[in-house]
Specification:
The protein is α/β, with parallel strands linked by helices. The protein has one domain (2-249): Alpha-Beta Barrel (TIM Barrel), CATH 3.20.20.140. Helices cover 32% and strands 18% of the residues. It contains ten helices and ten strands. A six-stranded mixed β-sheet has the order 7-4-3-2-1-10. It is globular. The protein binds zinc ion (2 copies). Residues 68, 76, 153-154, 160 line the site of one zinc ion. One zinc ion binds at residues 68, 76, 153-154, 160.
Length: 251
């Protein structure tokens, strides 16, 4: 069946995102925007993924989990995992590679860990918005060896992208690349191209979804919380399900 997916979204854990952007708001508005599969990918942390799992399943959405890691060269990479546990394990490992910057919440924004009902669990006292000490190729290799999928983020954006920081897309084990607009071949290298909303505010939710052909049974499994089945089917669908980024279908 043809479904609408959105693999790049931030919550109130990201210092640059709206405090209104709780995992439950993401799930509710994602569903209202017609999404069937949605991933939470905060900057360098997966700490809101357990809340997103609960909120998404409650809404009938099929969730995936991850984070948007920042390499030493300041290239953003969407990292996806089949379960909150796998995303949290990678997130915990990544934390040891984050540059230790003095964190001023008043200036940079709060980083709030919440539960599925918007209860505050924790305010972080370290900054998630910086770079890690991991080179881009090393970072990609680590994601894949942790059982995740690596998707270079917004490859054609003039900041925090392979084009702005490296000047090209290096060979790598990518599941796909994410673009803002129909990219030049040098920037996607023949990999499948998807779009993502990169939502930081409620009004961004669903704005750049991708449509593709996904196995209906795998989608149902994802809606029941069987993320492993959904994850495998989605990676296959990105390759063979004729993904259409938003510019191809939204007119
Ligand atoms: Zn980014
Ligand atoms: Zn982002």
């Amino acid at each position: 069946m043809r479904v609408r997916i959105d693999l790049h979204n931030h919550s109130c854990l990201s210092p640059c995102a709206s405090l209104e952007q709780s995992p439950s708001v993401l799930a509710r508005l994602g569903r209202a925007a017609g999404l069937q599969v949605m991933a939470l990918t905060d900057h360098n942390s997966a700490l809101n993924c357990p809340a997103f799992a609960e909120a998404a399943l409650r809404e009938g959405l099929a969730p995936l989990y991850g984070l948007e890691a920042c390499s030493a060269e300041e290239v953003h990479l969407v990292c996806l995992f089949p379960s909150p546990a796998a995303a949290l394990a990678f997130s915990e490992w990544l934390r040891g590679h984050l540059e230790p910057l003095p964190y001023e919440a008043e200036k940079l924004g709060d980083e709030v860990v919440v539960d599925a009902d918007e209860g505050v669990v924790e305010l972080l006292d370290y900054y998630l918005g910086g770079a890690t000490d991991l080179g881009f190729e090393e970072l990609c290799a680590q994601v894949v060896s942790a059982g995740g999928a690596a998707i270079p983020a917004h490859v054609d954006r003039p900041m925090f992208s392979v084009s702005s920081q490296l000047g090209f897309l290096p060979p790598g084990p990518y599941a796909a690349v994410e673009a803002m607009r129909d990219p030049a071949r040098a920037l996607f290298g023949g990999f499948p191209v998807v779009s993502g909303s990169d939502a930081h505010y409620p009004e961004h939710i669903g704005r750049r979804a991708t449509q593709l052909e996904l196995d209906g049974a795998a989608l149902e499994a994802g809606r029941r919380g069987e993320g492993g089945i959904l994850f495998e089917a989605l990676l296959e669908a990105v390759k063979t399900g004729r993904p259409e980024p938003y510019w191809a279908w939204s007119g």
